[in-house]
Amino acid sequence: MNVPIYICGGDIRGVVTKTDLFVTIEEAEGVAVDGKQESDKSTSSAVNNSVVSKFIPGTSKLDCSFKCGNYWRRITQRYHHRFITDEIGKPLNAFTTSKHMMQVVSNAFTAHRQAYELAGVIHRDVSSNNILITFSRGGILNDWDMAKTATDHEKGPPCQYERTGTWEFMSCLLLSGHHTINTIQDNMESFVLIILYHALRYFPHNRKGDTRWILDSVFNTKVPTEEGYRGYEGRRALFTSKIYIGRDFKLFCSPLHRWMKAAIAAVKEWIDTEEAARRRPEPVLVHATGGLLTYFDALGSCSEESSESPAPPLDIPPRYLDDHTALAEVCARCLIAHNWPDPNKDMPVDILPLLEAEQKPLPREAGTKESSGTGGSIKRNRSSTDIGRTGESSKRRKISTTKIAGPGRKSTAF
Questions:
Q1: Fewer CB atoms inside 10 Å of the end CB: C or N, the chain?
Q2: How far is CA 229 from CA 20, 180, 242, in A?
Q3: Is the peptide bond before 318 cis (omega within 30 degrees of 0)?
Q4: What stretch of H or E contains 356?
Q5: Residue 80: closest CA among 10, 4, 164
């Protein structure tokens, strides 16, 4: 069982969000907004006199400037809910080796598959925070409060007005507005993004110096638009063209590297065919009989020194991510690989603090003074020639720091 078992729980009486009450009078009255008629008039009764009085001078609109962007026509009301399960887990980043990380995420992927295939339930918020490590060192998929049944999805548009998911691990098609209903394919892409993020951050690879830039570009970029935040371009470019990581990207853990190559190929195929389906209705050529597992095995036959990988073969549908099968098979084959690193030499190391430490100036030199401030803290008084990284002072100290470089960016040594 890779899902925590529910014991008891319920709503906390009186603890409910009120942001949804601060809507325009037009929304509260259920009249036309943006050319559309509001059918749900329940908000009208919820708006009290104290709220209605806070209108914008000279207009019949409430002051909604505090909203997270005025592009939201409605905000979903939230109730504080608490519950108890039978499992107490550790966070995902408490894994001990690369294989342990893969095992934990694979267990969570199995939970997602079982929930969908046996009960028709889609999690809709797959993220690193929602995957926990149990005391038996396995993994569970937690936080099912956003879950919905597949039949609910088929009924039409979502009843809540915000996109569901955790930004860093939402699929690029969902973020791009390609569709609004969170599908199992969006969730499977989230699992791939989780592995990619933790592999980049905690295990050796040939783009170590660019790690911060890659993570920011792919996982953290948010561009405000009239329709809301947008940030799918980075992850789409990575999946479809291997921008940011580069075509020669290599994780030094061979089974993890092969899994990542196969998973990226699967997501690329899904994105390409979904976008192509919007442009033309005829079937799109995808992969050959044998599927993703054949591609994974072919990667293993490549020379370890070679950065080239076999191109995924072309044929006709079904696609790799039409269901869980292909990715589940690759996870299983990856975990039984014989060439996982020695656990004693494969312990995770957070690369980000190391990169930040490498970019800090050297300890103070002779001629600087230290004085004790309030509370016993130490303050450093540096001479003007020692401040910054330019001028004769920097040349004398011979600090060599390399800034992260990306496409179109130069590496600058100081």
A1: N
A2: 20, 14, 23
A3: yes
A4: helix 351-358
A5: 10
Contact between 272 and 187 under an 8 Å Cβ cutoff? The reply is no
CB distance 145 to 83 below 8 Å = no
Amino acid at 192: V
Q: Are 404 and 210 in contact (CB under 8 A)?
A: yes
Burial class (CB in 10 A: 0-12, 13-18, 19+), 347: middle
Question: What is the phi/psi pair of residue 66, to 5°?
Answer: -80, -10
22-42 CB burial, b ≥16 within 10 A, e <16? bbbbbbbbeeeeeeeebeeee
* Distances in whole angstroms, Cα of residue 379 to Cα of each of 364, 370, 373: 12, 6, 6
pLDDT in tens, the chain (414 residues): 789 888 999 999 989 887 766 655 454 444 444 444 444 434 333 333 334 344 445 555 444 544 444 444 556 778 898 989 888 899 999 999 999 999 999 999 999 999 999 999 999 999 999 999 999 999 999 999 889 988 876 665 555 545 567 889 999 998 888 888 889 999 999 999 999 999 999 999 999 999 999 999 999 988 877 666 778 899 999 999 999 999 999 999 999 999 999 999 999 999 999 988 877 655 544 454 456 777 787 777 665 555 555 555 444 457 899 999 999 999 999 999 999 999 999 999 999 999 888 876 555 544 444 443 433 433 333 433 333 333 333 333 333 333 333 444 433 333
pTM equals: 0.70
